[in-house]
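User: two proteins, same treatment. go.

Assistant:
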Amino acid sequence: MSGHQFPRSSRICRKADFEEVFSKGVRWSTRHLRAVVHEAGRDESRLGLAVSRKVGNAVVRNRLKRRLREIFRVERSLAPAHRDLILIPRPGCSDLDFQKLRLEVIDLISRSVDSSGEPR
């Protein structure tokens, strides 16, 4: 069961950590998502979510966050270690089915890494 966990150490929780990623990170976008990636001094990659009320009501936002966390948990091997990733869904993102959302997240992760594994 250890591969099916998403521990607190894998999440960006503190305001200071969010601010550091936003101020020093590199940004990429797709039609429905934005990503900010920052090199961190940790052993594993971490995920943060910044979901605006423009995306929908609380039920919609929470469902979207659960889906994004699950995608990151399953596709974590694509994200290089020691990087912090913040995903910012745009309005309309909640209308995507799971597979399309998954493909957009994978696209953002792969854009942030070139063939050598270093940030672009």
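Protein 2:
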Amino acid sequence: MTGTGTAAGQQTSRETWGGRARSWLRVTGSVGPLGIAVAVLWLSLIVLLPLAALTFHSFDEGWAGFWDAVTAPASLDSLRVTILVSIAVALINVVMGTLVAWVLVRDEFPGKGIVNALIDLPFALPTIVASIVLLSLYGPQSPIDVQLNATQPGLIVALTFVTLPFVVRSVQPVLIEADREVEQAAVSLGADNWTTFRRIILPSLTPAIISGGGLAFARAIGEYGSVVLIGGNIPGRTQMTSQYIQQQIEVDRPVNAAAVSVALLAISFLTLLVLRLFADRIARKEQASR
């Protein structure tokens, strides 16, 4: 009986594993295998192959060369400045982007359509133009007597400008689809505006806010055009990693530039991955609580 039971258990295990494998390999959807193959091929040509080539190039001098390039004092200084500034930009966008989205969805005022269209302007405007505009406003000849040229606050202002749409456009659809009856019920039960926002509205907005903040961080960490003029490119103070990479290319150190680029990509990817998993977990908890 024992042998028969063991054999039956093994058979059941094999059937379970086979079922899981077939489920994992099953192709579903409207486009079919051909559409999926085209999408994967396109993604490979546009994203995966260039990233793979960059990664291989960064190790042309071996692991030691890669590590030396990434941990060089100037490289670490630029990474420190970039990460700190990008975190500040993401946090500012989380607060102000959510506020702007709220105003655009919940309030009515003259020119609302124009303001809503202006939110997307940073996507259409060449970032070097943004740097020129900000330099003319906050540079040495500032008409408002505010000097932010070659300072970290100047970097934050420039990067906040180019990353503004991410949180706004992430939060807007969620606010539009929110169930206003739940909010009205909370108010009728005596909840004030802050309590209603904190207990009812914010939990449903959190995944979108995290997603938008993560995208803003990822965009800021790799930005070049908007900071190239107003930043000043001062090593250890205002030199962003993108500027350091450009500097390495100019002095004919392409392997060093590739190594630091891979490190920057890894930081950005891991940040987005962690935030995505965190946002998905919050979304699942929010769904389960309903």
